């Protein structure tokens, strides 16, 4: 039901992002979606990758602080009103969206959503008639 | 176990008589053998005969680090170089190095003092001890080494550098004791956790010195490693590590008073203060031959306690150091010690003891930024949670020092780990 998202804490220092992507490349890990949230001092790199467990351990070994978080990958069509149908469902249940970003990989189009309550959000989305991707489907 | 019961458990009257007699001889020795002291005493009209015992101690002038720098390199030596068997030097973050010379007997006394300290930490002949201080001009490595050997332990001279190798040997040899700086031991403890080998470690006790640390940090080290961590005090000008250590009751550090005469003086008036009152620690080296010092101002701030200790030793105890008068920062008129920040961070839990204070001056106003490494389990993928954490740390530090502070979270292990002394402060105000 959930997708394991890889989150990496990153100081705003020269070369940190380059180092992180180098490690992923060396491990043969594909990045399917990515978002970068930043503050004045540090950034949070959030990614959906082909092998989250391997990515996390490889990054940790190199001194990065990395963690896996459960997020939803909601399947959406490329047409007007799709995103609204999702926000409407979540809003109706009183669920907050912490952050969201889009994923387009091959034929797969989805919105990655971190909601205040992941379980409740997943149930609401499915009840509302939308579909969720799991890690296997995204990586397959 | 007590290494030298005769001296460590001596009656107070007897100890004072011994100190008095040794002081008289010391003054006589420096007057006749060190031109610098002779001139200093003559300048205030003092002759060796004027010092008849402990009661005359305060008539003597102080010695400071500047005196040692002014006489660089060998000007304060009281014996010819043919009798000096070893030299140590402290780098000194500012200015010239200070050089100290040891006679063979000085080395013996030093080893004796360190042996007393290691015994005080509950270690004995059957123990295997890693010395993980740097070996070289710094007194930590060789000082710890000779003392541990004198006591009869099996010594592993690790020095510093390769932490994984140190831990591997710790496991393979069944090491039970370690001597190193507290921040390095903390780093070792973290590495042991990372390697997941905590249950393979046989460590019982540590002696940690060369930098100030807090009671909270001791608790954390003791908890992480399941050991007793002892504070070992010393400074190269006086001898090196081994001037004082705390016993298993951790109620201050027993000074080896038959060799080092301690006084606490007020930081402004330089008059002696009563037991329990914090001031600057001043030491006279009662038995040192190579470079005997009279009333040396250590710049370390502490207080003294003469009440009997549960361990049976009668020697005076000095309190855990609140800081060095050197380390004290004045930020917007407020006195701040790095150790206060450290205590506040450990109090909060969750963060490691690794931090860096950056003091700057922006538009004529002092600013304090504290960079804090945050343990991995604290991280969140939500910026808001991290911001809340930073605000919470700011609040805790602010409560502790009474100054507004900006906290910057940094990646774990990104702040420099030093094998010798930790750098906890960068003061950019001085760079103008
Ligand atoms: Zn203890
Ligand atoms: Zn005691």
Describe this structure in words.
Chain A has 140 residues and is an alpha+beta fold. Chain A folds into 2 domains: 3-70, VC0802-like; 71-139, VC0802-like, CATH 3.30.2130.10. Chain A is built from 5 helices and 7 strands. In chain A, strands 1, 2, 3, 4, 5, 6 and 7 form a 7-stranded antiparallel sheet that branches. Chain A is globular. The longest helix of chain B is centred in the first third of the chain and has 22 residues, at 12-33. In chain B, a hairpin with a 7-residue loop joins strand 1 and strand 2. Chain B folds into 2 domains: 5-325, 3-Layer(aba) Sandwich (Rossmann fold), CATH 3.40.50.12780; 331-427, ANL, C-terminal domain (GMP Synthetase, Chain A, domain 3), CATH 3.30.300.30. Chain B is an alpha/beta fold and 432 residues long. In chain B, helix 2 crosses helix 3 (35-43). In chain B, the strands form 5 sheets. Chain B has a 9-stranded mixed sheet, with helices on both faces. A 4-stranded antiparallel sheet of chain B has the order 10-11-12-15. Chain B has a 4-stranded mixed sheet with strand order 20-19-18-21. Chain B has helices at residues 5-8, 12-33, 35-43, 65-70, 104-120, 139-151, 163-173, 182-195, 215-225, 338-348, 383-401; strands at 84-90, 98-103, 128-131, 154-156, 177-180, 205-208, 228-235, 240-246, 253-255, 260-265, 279-285, 296-302, 304-305, 317-318, 323-324, 329-331, 334-336, 351-362, 365-374, 406-410, 425-427. Classes of the chains: A alpha+beta (140), B alpha/beta (432). Chains A and B meet through strand 1, strand 3 and strand 4 of A and helix 11 and strand 20 of B. Bound molecules: zinc ion (2 copies). One zinc ion (ZN) is lined by residues 222, 228, 250 of chain B. One zinc ion binds at residues 247, 249, 254, 309, 311, 313 of chain B.
């Amino acid at each position: 039901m959930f997708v394991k998202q890889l989150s990496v804490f990153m100081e705003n220092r020269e070369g940190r992002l380059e180092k992180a992507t180098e490690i992923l490349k060396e491990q043969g890990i594909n990045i399917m979606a990515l978002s970068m949230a930043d503050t004045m001092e540090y950034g949070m790199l959030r990614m959906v990758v082909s092998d989250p467990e391997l990515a996390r351990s490889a990054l940790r070994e190199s001194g990065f602080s990395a963690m896996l978080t459960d997020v939803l990958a909601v399947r959406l069509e490329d047409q007007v009103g799709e995103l609204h149908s999702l926000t409407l469902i979540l809003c109706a249940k009183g669920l907050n969206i912490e952050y969201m970003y889009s994923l387009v990989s091959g034929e797969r189009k989805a919105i990655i959503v971190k909601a205040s309550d992941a379980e409740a959000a997943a149930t609401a989305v499915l009840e509302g008639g939308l579909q969720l991707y799991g890690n296997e489907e995204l990586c397959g | 176990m007590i290494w030298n019961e005769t001296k460590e458990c001596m009656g107070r009257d007897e100890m004072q008589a011994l100190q008095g007699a040794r002081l008289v001889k010391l003054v006589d020795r420096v007057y006749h053998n060190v031109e610098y002291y002779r001139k200093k005493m003559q300048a205030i009209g003092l002759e060796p005969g004027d010092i008849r015992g402990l009661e005359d101690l305060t008539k003597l002038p102080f010695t400071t680090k500047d005196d040692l720098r002014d006489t660089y390199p060998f000007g304060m030596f009281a014996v010819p170089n043919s009798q000096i068997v070893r030299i140590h030097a402290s780098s000194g973050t500012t200015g010239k190095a200070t050089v100290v010379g040891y006679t063979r007997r000085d080395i013996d006394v030093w080893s004796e003092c360190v042996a007393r300290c290691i015994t005080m930490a509950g270690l004995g002949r059957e123990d295997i001890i890693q010395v993980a201080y740097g070996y070289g001009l710094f007194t930590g490595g060789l000082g710890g080494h000779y003392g541990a050997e004198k006591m009869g332990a099996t010594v592993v001279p690790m020095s510093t550098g390769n932490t994984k190798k140190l831990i591997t040997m710790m496991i393979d040899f069944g090491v039970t004791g370690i001597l190193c700086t507290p921040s390095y031991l903390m780093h070792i403890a973290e590495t042991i956790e990372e390697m997941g080998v905590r249950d393979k470690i046989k460590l019982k006790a540590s002696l940690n010195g060369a930098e100030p640390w807090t009671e909270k940090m001791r608790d954390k080290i003791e908890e992480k490693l399941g050991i007793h961590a002892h504070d070992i005090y010393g400074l190269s000008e006086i001898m090196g590590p081994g001037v004082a250590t705390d016993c298993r009751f951790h109620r201050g550090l027993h000074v080896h008073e038959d060799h080092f005469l301690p006084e606490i003086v007020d930081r402004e008036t330089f008059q002696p203060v009563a037991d329990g009152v914090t001031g600057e620690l001043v030491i006279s080296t009662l038995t040192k031959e190579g470079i005997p010092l009279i009333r040396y101002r250590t710049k370390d701030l502490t207080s003294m306690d003469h009440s009997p200790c549960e361990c049976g030793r009668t020697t005076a105890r000095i309190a855990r150091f609140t800081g060095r008068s050197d380390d004290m920062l004045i930020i917007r008129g407020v006195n701040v010690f790095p150790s206060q920040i450290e205590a506040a961070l450990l109090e909060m839990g969750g963060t490691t003891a690794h931090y860096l204070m950056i003091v700057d001056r922006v538009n004529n106003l002092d600013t304090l930024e504290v960079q804090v490494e945050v343990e991995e389990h604290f991280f969140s993928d939500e910026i808001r949670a991290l911001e809340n954490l930073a605000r919470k740390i700011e609040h805790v530090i602010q409560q502790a020092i009474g100054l507004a502070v900006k906290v910057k979270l940094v990646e774990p292990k990104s702040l420099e780990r030093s094998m010798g002394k930790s750098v906890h402060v960068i003061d950019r105000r001085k760079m103008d």
